[in-house]
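Lecture 7 notes: from sequence to structure.

We start with a single chain of 800 residues. Read the sequence below before looking at the structure.
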Amino acid sequence: MLGGMALLALFPVRATAQSVPAGSPRPGDPVPQQPGTGGAYPGGAYPGGAYPGGAYPGGAYPGGAYPGGAYPGGAYPGGAYPGGAYPGGAYPGGRPSGPPGTGPVGPIPPGTLPQEPAYPGGAAPYPGYPVGESPVPRVQPEPAAALPAGGDDVAGGVPAGPEEPGGDGGARPLAAPRPAQAVVADPDDGDAGGLFGSGWEIPPIRMGGNLGYTTQRGFMDSASGFNHALFGNISASSFIIAPGVATVTGRLGITQNRTEISAPDQPLGAASVGSGTGAATTVLGGGELNLLGATRFPSRFYYDRSDSRTSGYLVANQYTLTQYGARQAYASRDGETNAAFDLSRNVAAFANGDTSWSSNLNGSLVNRWGPVRNSWALTSYTSGSDSTRLLAGEAAQLNYTSNHFVDLGENANLGSTVQYSQNKFESFASANQPARLTRSNSWSVNTFGSWLPEFEDLDDLPLSLNASVRAFGFNVESGGAASDVTGLSATLGANYRFNQNATAFGSVQAAAANSGASGNSMLSNYSVGAVYTGDPLSFGNYSYNWSANGNANWSVVDSGSQSGSGNAAFYSAALSHQLGRNWVLDRGDNLYASINQSLTVLEDNVFGVTSTLNNGLSASYGMTGAGGLSLGLFGSAYYNITTGAFPLNYTSVNLGANGGGQLSQHSSFNVNMTMTYVDQEVPATTSFFAGAGGGQTNVTTTGSGSKQTTIVGNASYNNSRFLMSGVRYNSIFTIDTRLIDSRLQGQLAVNQSPVRWQWGNYWYYRLGKLDFTLNASLAEVGGAKNALLYFSVTRSFGNW
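Now the structure, written as tokens:
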């Protein structure tokens, strides 16, 4: 593969290097006319017999040659510019000139000649070289011809002009150029230069790789595994024509694995694991091609294959992951349009025979047409899993969203949103369940706008009006049953702010829907409400805040011949208040605590009155130290009591910590952890609901309850000089007790049994070109305790 990459890189990069005498005018100096020279520049060569400084600026063209390696034909056409001068007798672009055969008139325009340290075509620097440096040796300028300080130029007999700032210390002629001087070819390049005298060369290749050995010991309850691996990788990168035009990288590796498993036959999920040994040889590698990376339309193509057995991370099942894809981006010159397109394919082959795969498509476009701002986004993925331990099946999803927004002046705006979503999940038949197919589609088109009437004080607009119209539809098909709904709704709302404390609002909504066999239904809804927030009260270090709000809703539902028609009235009122206290402690530490309470009362003509009393307590502590060190602790507790048709006792407690910073010159830490405890209890009750025709319905519920504790977060510690110089140490702890499995949502490289928590300890050390890695990790995977001890040593070579 690397040989093929090198053949692809056979593009012209350097022409026959030529050296010319020095000592002539610099860019920007007036260039005299000398008619009748013919066949070359005035005087038979560049003005003054050579380019400023005796050669191209900096001693040569950037990169040591013309862009692309040479002028057409390996030199100037016909040995000089066409017609003995610039095309048309002038600089490109039709710059004025004298009679045929002469040079341009006037000074060389700024920017006409390439200036260091830019590269040919304005491309980005060569990979691996500092800005302004090139992997191609440059032609060194010949020593500048000596000019007497002041007086006449002996060679040309022309009085010397004044010294130009930044000159060579002597005066330079401002009149006739020096006599023509021969151009000498570089003897190292032959007649045409390049590879076999063709003018073509292999561009510089950056190459390197590593050889290594890894060993890891894993434990899972009573089972254990031992894995050895020898691996080698070689990587290379180069460019085609120029770094800004195309760059290419490649990687090729081989891994030889031997695995030993020691475990009694026991079920792990739906699979059985027994003792045994196995060996495998895996070819790894990949490559990447970037085209036009320094332009407004860069492209990227990639392929990669990796093996988790050499990664040093604890996984429940070893896998080989293959990924490939392409990306194309575009940006307009004025910056008003930006677009991107991504396509990728991922396949994970697990050691126990399971496979997972996904195909992903993402596209986006953002632009502006006059006053209208637009954005489009399309995402699509299909994924599947053939698992012996988890639910096997295929899933597909397609999402499309577009947004459009326009300002119609200082007081009005208009916008719209279009959405479409398609989902499919198909589970494969197994011993535990039959195959099942579920499909769903939904779409909506929403147009909305707002208007602020004119007021004398534009900074205080108390009234705002808003309106929207929405069309929607969705259908679901599962297990042979299907439902389909389409509808149209319109809403008109208003907000009026009396002062900084009081605001009133109201809205009117009408909607119509068709649900297939159920027929048509109509809904009209009317809502009014108000919010009042009191002025904050402060006394000493205490602060007190309170607010109140009320809302009333009336709905009329007409379901035709179907049941469910009728009127509904809904009223609510709420009152809340909060008392807080802040303490500033020594060293600037801060402690804040507050207590809050709220009462909400709901009443409707179906369920009667429901009331909820919420009591809350919260506190936070923050400390700061030297070097930006910070640590925060926070906690809150809530107890809610709900009475009425749906009684509920709800208790929640939240505790957490966050912070980070430098502990010393070489060590730092970071923590972000939250624990939540929830206790819900539903008392046994008998409720009375108003029935049709004024009747009454009695509903009796039995008591129930649930308790759950979840912890989510991470903590890390880093030390760049652990116990001895050169040893780096990282300790990372992650926890998420919410059992989540995302393999069928496109995330392939995850454990088949979700990791609830993991604590990893990593040591790194380099001795010459030898790299040592040690990892000791503990984890809980799917309820089973896991441990991993991993060691690797690698030897790097090359300049990769």
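Helices lie at 2-8. Keep this in mind for problem set 3.
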